[in-house]
Specification:
The chain has 305 residues and is mainly alpha-helical. It has 14 helices and three strands. It has helices at residues 8-12, 14-37, 40-55, 59-66, 74-91, 98-105, 114-121, 130-144, 155-171, 193-229, 233-246, 251-258, 262-274, 293-299, and strands at residues 248-249, 279-280, 290-291. The protein has a three-stranded antiparallel beta sheet with strand order 1-3-2.
Length: 305
Amino acid sequence: MLPMLDSTALTTGGVDAIRTYEDASSAVGRLNAAGCLAPAGLRELLVVRCIATAVGTTHSGMIALVRADGEGPASHRSYAAALREGAARARGGALPSVAYLHDLLRLPGAGMPAGPIDDLLRDVHERTPPVLKAALAALGLRAARSVSPGEPADAQSETLSALVVALVLCVGGATSDAWLTLPPAPSGADLTLHGIFATFAREARSAERGLAAARDICDADESRVREALGRAAYSALDLLALLRDEIVITVPDAARKLGATPPTAGAAVARLVELGIAREVTGRARSRAFAYEGIVKALAPAERA
């Protein structure tokens, strides 16, 4: 049975639901403000963090998603492609629907009670604030395939609910891109509005702290390069700025983007590796890629039991 999918669900949820809604809305707002002020590379990492949260991977999985050589599980990359396509449409104002979510994820849509959820997503009955709408849509999608009330949904519904949260927050203006979603619900999770709002607040605060930590790492690493390399710092600093924006680089790509020769770019990469800033992530002798692992770790979702 679907829960109430309108604003009355908030008032009937009691004082705890209202308080956690206000807390979640505040936390999401602070995350969005921090994200909008962050450099482009860190904004991109927020999107990758959102993907990693939904698929349940850690910083190594995030690095795989950024790499251009197709590393990482195909299911993770499929979800990433779905999220990016949906977020691009959401930033343009396109509202999601249950059918569109299934289409993005290439899932069969049979058996999903789309009507009430689609009415919510289109604001058929009332204009619902994005944080509340995201929570209601997630609860609706999770309830639609639950074995019994209060029990966790199946994996497809978990994926659908994670995607709808990111897109609803984005199209509603709560976040400027796909920067926040729900992690898979663990056994015994609080599958109520109160529980969803508490998760929003926790995830938003964690992402905001990660952004601040990543910026501190960038500043500290820039100072380290200046102090350690003297005159050789110029090319290394250019490479560091590129690495912050690209997250994962190769020497040929770095040479092309910096307008440097491959030996010069390779030497700059080697210096950052020596300083422990860049790490080689392919394990190969040729066609190697180097990641800015410190900032990825700072923004990685917390590992869950």
